[in-house]
Design brief:
Order of helices and strands of chain C: EEEHEEHEHHHHHEHEHEEHHEEH
Distance between the termini of chain C: 23 Å
Order of helices and strands of chain B: HHHHHHHHHH
Number of helices of chain B: 10
CATH superfamily of chain B: MetI-like
Chains: A alpha/beta, B mainly alpha, C alpha/beta
Oligomer: heterotrimer
Number of strands of chain B: 0
Largest sheet of chain B: none
Largest sheet of chain C: 8 strands, mixed
Shape of chain C: globular
Number of helices of chain C: 12
Helix content of chain B: over 70%
Number of domains of chain B: 1
CATH architecture of chain B: Orthogonal Bundle
């Protein structure tokens, strides 16, 4: 029986409106009692439209945002209340891939340097030379070369930047990748490349994924287990095949039906 | 050679010179370069010792010997004007440096930590900001003592709120970028984050603001000297030269015109330079 | 010019050989679109599909005379009911815009004026083009908002854009486009920024509006699914050229251009869980890099000797065109 690698337990998040002095003048409930688990080696998709709370959930899982209520457990350990210094070791094990290929890298530095940062922070590898070697190895895995490492972000195409972003996430050897719409800003042909890459990386490195997207077709392709969210709540969950074959909730059915489908007379 | 429909769209990533922008930058840059050269090489360039008295030849108009005339103590106006450039540039440099450093520190801290820290710092800045510059400078000089060093400090303090606002706004924009989240997810500490990720991206607009602030600093220094609070006679400053020149408007108008013109040119030069820099850094339309 | 439309309704727009060029300060001269030909007939929803860099958006903008500075249509014609839009003077163009041809831009939120009420904006075309008084214009606005299925339109006209949801804003933009009853409405990715359920409703609305008003639509998108569901006819663009064109059902049943095939294969399906997506290696060429021969050659899996020369548009069947050497000899 596989163990839960990441567990989100009864997480709620509300945002206060009004400033420091004005006090609690109304709240926005971004998440309401959300719970789910990601097993080792499993790929979980979180789908929903805008306002579903998917990005907030992701930021909470990465401990970039504190939940108002609820707990986060990594490999059985409750990390919710941990201070940043204690949590740092866990950061090695969970890495993000973000959506916007334009702002995902600091525009001032070559991407190779930004990718090497993780190694510097966590002191992986003996020295600069060895770390650079690890960076280049990882770049090769994602289909980029040493030449790309020298370039500034704006000198790479959107697809290349996302590959570099994946390399940055992989370089410190995480066990869980949290991806927030990593292909939404890419063209279809490039998206296919990146999705294939993500699938391959998962198989090769035995990673777990949490994949947030508004695009059901993408989630259908890459996720084993699906969580459907709406307005901060979970509407339905289920295995990929089961959910798409027999969605039980009306919202889930509406969501699936809304996706415009290509007439699949051409086999792929 | 431009296509019908007007000038070309450009994609700039950082610094680029365009034909229309080049003008401002070039002219401004040229004037500033002349000013800097005058300041740096004053002893070599100036024909006379700015302190050398010649009572007999006082209030002489522009002539072969004294290109821009002599003042009420017979000193060469041209030489004094050139040496005064030093004061203006020095004070402006140090003052802007103080303002830039202080303002960036305050602005970044306020943006990064937010909440109470942000509120307290920015209200403080607003208090400073609400004083008219000259008034604040006079108050500071009165409490600190009237000399050039204090003038630098006073003007620097006046600049801090402006820079802090800009630094804070730019830092806010940077903090929203995804590479900040990525760095935090890697476990990067606060200090390193500010230094490596935020600061370099906040730089460009601050630099432009600094260039514009320069001209204002020169103006302020002259104002202080004019009021007798800056450079003390016999040290030449455009401000105090203008002040003494007032008394001789009819007999020796050149005593006012020359330093006035020099001041005008200096401010103009820095303004153009600032405008040119702002345009050069401005990301244009993508095609 | 090959006749693509033997059995379609009356022609509304015929674009022939449009070439769009741009000059870039550093990159020099670029060809955004080359020899683009389209035909749109009454009551059709025509899809213009392409990825970024395909030139689809600028082609549409050229039709409306809205090309940005430094970009111009250097060749070709675009006849809207006989009048060539590309050769009209600015004044004449301004009269045509709104009356004969309208644009629904991509980002409704930023296309709407935040300080004018929705009613004023939707009614404005009547004031400007028809010299109507505001009272009459606002009454028209109410009718239009009802047409696009906004609830309680009498209340809506007094509201401001920020009070509308994304879907409602887009409906308001559509209402503005329809206002003067143009023959052709150009919709530039109108649903890209919307949630998928909202998008589904907007697509249904477009279909209904076409049925009710008989207007023709040129629907620009990067989403094959939308094309499949909504469009009667489709033009596939790649790197500035139309590489395939024809009736939608035909194109999907028998795609003849390798790019069209690859695009279909690269789109992840919903109906089943695909094992792998057929990705297209490489990148879209930049308009500033001229290529010899076929623009898709570098990424094509069926490359052969003839591809070194640029393929002409070939009719693989009546009303079905593919710009590929493979199509020419009846292969592919």
């Amino acid at each position: 029986m596989a163990e839960a690698y990441l567990e989100v337990r009864n997480v709620s998040k509300s945002f206060r409106r009004g400033g420091v002095l004005r006090g609690r003048r109304g709240e926005t409930q971004a998440l309401d009692d959300v719970s789910f688990r990601v097993l080792r080696g499993q790929s979980v998709g979180i789908v929903g439209e805008s306002g579903a709370g998917k990005s907030t959930l992701l930021k909470i899982a990465l401990k970039l945002v504190k939940p108002t209520r609820g707990r986060i457990l990594i490999d059985g350990e409750d990390v919710t209340g941990l201070r940043e210094s204690a949590f740092r070791a866990f950061r090695r094990r969970i890495q993000p891939v973000f959506q916007d290929p334009y702002s995902t890298f600091n525009p001032r530095y070559p991407v190779g340097a930004s990718i090497r940062l993780g190694l510097d922070i966590h002191e992986i590898g003996a020295g600069r030379a060895e770390r650079t070697g690890i960076v280049l190895e990882t770049l090769e895995k994602v289909g980029l070369s040493a030449e790309h490492a020298e370039r500034l972000p704006h000198q790479l195409s959107g697809g290349q930047r996302q590959r570099a972003a994946i390399a940055r996430a992989l370089v410190i050897g995480p066990e869980l990748i949290v991806a927030d719409e990593p292909t939404s800003a890419l063209d279809v042909s490039v998206q296919a490349q990146i999705l294939n890459l993500l699938k391959d990386m998962r198989a090769e490195l035995g990673l777990s994924y949490v994949f947030v997207s508004h695009n059901l077709a993408v989630v259908r392709f890459i996720c084993d287990f699906i969580v459907v969210m709406r307005n901060g709540r979970i509407v339905e969950t289920g295995d990929n095949e089961a959910l798409f074959a027999n969605p039980t909730q009306p919202y889930t059915r509406e969501l699936i039906a809304a996706v415009p489908e290509v007439p699949w007379n051409v086999g792929s | 050679m431009s296509a019908p429909g007007g000038p070309l769209p450009t994609l700039t990533s950082g610094f680029t010179f365009g034909w229309s922008r080049f003008g401002l930058l070039a002219i401004g840059g040229a004037i500033v370069a002349v000013m800097l050269a005058a300041a740096a090489f004053a002893p070599v360039v100036a024909p006379y010792d700015p302190y050398a008295l010649d009572i007999a030849g006082m209030l002489g108009g522009p002539s072969g010997h004294h290109l821009l005339g002599t003042d009420e103590l017979g000193r060469d106006v041209l030489s004094r004007t050139i040496f005064a450039t030093r004061i203006s540039i020095e004070v402006a440099l140090i003052a802007v440096a103080i303002g830039l450093t202080g303002g960036t520190l305050v602005g970044l801290t306020a943006a990064y930590f937010g909440g109470l820290v942000d509120m307290v710092l920015m209200r403080l800045m607003e208090v400073l900001f609400s004083f008219p510059a000259i008034l604040l400078a006079v108050i500071l000089m009165a409490s600190l003592g009237t000399n050039i060093l204090n003038a630098m400090l006073a003007i620097g303090i006046i600049f801090i709120p402006g820079f802090s606002r800009l630094a804070r706004a730019t830092a806010h924009h940077v903090l929203r970028q995804q590479y900040i989240d990525a760095a935090r997810s890697l476990g990067m500490g606060d200090a390193r984050l500010i230094a490596r990720e935020i600061l370099p991206n906040v730089f460009a607009p601050l630099l432009v603001e600094a260039a514009v602030a320069f001209s204002y600093a020169v103006l302020l220094e002259s104002a202080l000297s004019f009021l007798g609070l800056g450079a003390q006679p016999p040290e030449p400053s455009w401000g105090n030269m203008l002040n003494t020149g007032r008394g001789f408007m009819e007999q020796a108008p050149w005593l006012s015109i020359v330093p006035g013109l020099a001041l005008f040119l200096c401010v103009l030069g820095f303004n153009l330079l600032g405008d040119g820099l702002r345009d050069a850094f401005d990301p244009h339309l993508k095609d | 010019m090959v006749d693509l439309a033997p059995s379609r309704g009356k022609e509304v727009l015929r674009a022939d050989g449009i070439t769009i060029e741009a000059r870039h300060r550093r990159r020099g001269r670029g060809v955004i679109a080359r020899d683009v030909s389209l035909a749109i007939h009454e009551g059709e929803i025509v899809g213009l599909i392409g990825e970024s860099g395909s030139g689809k958006t600028l082609t549409a903008k050229a039709l409306l005379g809205l090309l940005p500075r430094g970009v111009r249509a250097s060749a070709g014609s675009a006849r809207l009911r006989g009048v060539d839009l590309l050769s009209l003077a600015p004044d004449a163009l301004r009269r045509v815009r709104g009356e004969q041809i309208a644009l629904i831009p991509q980002d409704a939120l930023h296309a709407l004026n935040p300080v004018m009420t929705v009613g004023a904006q939707v009614g404005e075309p009547f004031v400007i083009h028809r010299g109507a008084k505001w009272a009459a214009a606002l009454r028209q606005a109410v009718d239009l908002l009802a047409l696009v299925q906004l609830p309680e339109p009498e209340k809506r006209i007094a509201e401001y854009p920020h009070q509308f949801s994304g879907g409602m804003q887009q409906r308001a933009m559509i209402a503005m486009g329809l206002a003067l009853g143009p023959s052709l409405i150009v919709a530039d990715e109108p649903t890209t920024a919307l949630d998928v359920t909202v998008q589904a409703r907007i697509l249904a609305l477009v279909r209904q509006l076409r049925d009710r008003t008989g207007a023709a639509f040129l629907f620009i998108t990067h989403d094959l699914g939308i094309v499949g569901e909504l469009c009667d006819w489709v033009y596939v663009m790649y790197a500035g050229q139309v590489v395939e064109a024809g009736a939608t059902r035909r194109i999907f049943a028998d795609p003849r251009h390798p790019y069209t095939r690859a695009l279909i294969a690269a789109t992840p399906p919903i109906a089943r869980r695909a094992d792998r997506l057929a990705a297209i290696p490489g990148q879209i060429p930049s308009p500033f890099e001229p290529t010899l021969g076929c623009r898709f050659a570098a990424r094509c899996t069926r490359l052969f000797a003839r591809c070194a020369a640029e393929p002409p548009p070939v009719d693989v069947a009546p009303g079905h065109m593919a710009r590929c050497w493979l199509a020419e000899d009846g292969h592919g």
